[in-house]
Every structure is written in C-alpha cells, then in structure tokens.
Design a protein that fits this description.
The N and C termini lie far apart (42 Å). The longest helix has 30 residues, at 74-103. By secondary structure, the chain is mostly helical. It has 5 helices and no strands. It has one domain. It is globular, with a radius of gyration of 18 Å. Helix 2 packs antiparallel against helix 3 and helix 4 packs antiparallel against helix 5. It is 85% helix and 0% strand.
Length: 131
C-alpha cells in the first residue's frame, strides 16, 4: 500500500506531461480533427474518417517540417513559428486553467505561465532542424 501513492503521482505527472506535449501540437491536431469531422459529414464511415484525420495530421506536420527546412528568411521562419505558437499558447492556457479549476483554484497565473511555456516549446519545435 505505501507504494500506491508514489506510483499514482508518477502516473498523474506523466499524464499532465503528455497533455502539455499534445498542446504544443495544437494546430496539426485541430486540422486533423477538422478533416476527420468533415469526412464524416460527407458520408465516410467512422474508420475512414479516422484515417483521413490521421493523414491530415501527419500531412500538416510533414509539410511544416519541409517548409521550415526550406525557408531561409528570418521573418518567414518567425511567421511559421508563430503559426504554431499561437494555437499552442491558447491550448496550454486552457489546459492549465481547467486543471486549476479542477484543483479548486482560479488557475489564471498557472494558465498564463503554461501559455507562455507552450508557445515557446511550439516555436522551438518549428525552428529546430527536423530530427
């Protein structure tokens, strides 16, 4: 029984880490979900809609990596980084604020800190070379 609390905290911490890591990919996730819903509204089956959404998600990530490697002008690279950083900041703020409300606090300061962190991580992911 004494091992249960530390393992629960490790599991909860890993879950929070994965939520914020997903927040940095807010733009590709949103476009993949939108493509999946659009395919479902057009009459595709559930599995086909899921596949279309996953392909759209991976396509956005691949296209952004290619564009990031091809861009040479600083302003164009900054614009591309902002294209990914702004949705990541909004998602990180919403996630931290929701976690703060669940824990019983207002979460506004935690939300602002998380928004800045998610935006910085998303911008750094776009500007580093593709691995």
């Amino acid at each position: 029984m004494p091992i249960l609390l530390p393992l629960s905290l490790v599991g909860f911490g890993y879950l929070i880490y994965q939520l914020f890591a997903g927040a940095t990919l807010a733009l590709p996730i949103a476009l993949g979900v939108a493509a999946g819903f659009a395919a479902h509204q057009l009459g595709c089956s559930t599995f086909a809609s899921f596949v279309i959404g996953v392909i759209a998600f991976m396509g956005v990530i691949a296209a952004s990596r290619v564009v990031a490697l091809k861009l040479t002008k600083t302003y164009a690279r900054i614009t591309l980084a902002l294209l990914f950083a702004v949705p990541a900041a909004l998602t990180g703020y919403s996630l931290a604020h929701a976690l703060g409300v669940v824990l019983g606090t207002t979460g506004i300061v935690a939300g602002l800190v998380a928004a800045m962190a998610c935006a910085a991580i998303a911008a750094e992911r776009m500007l580093r070379p593709a691995i």
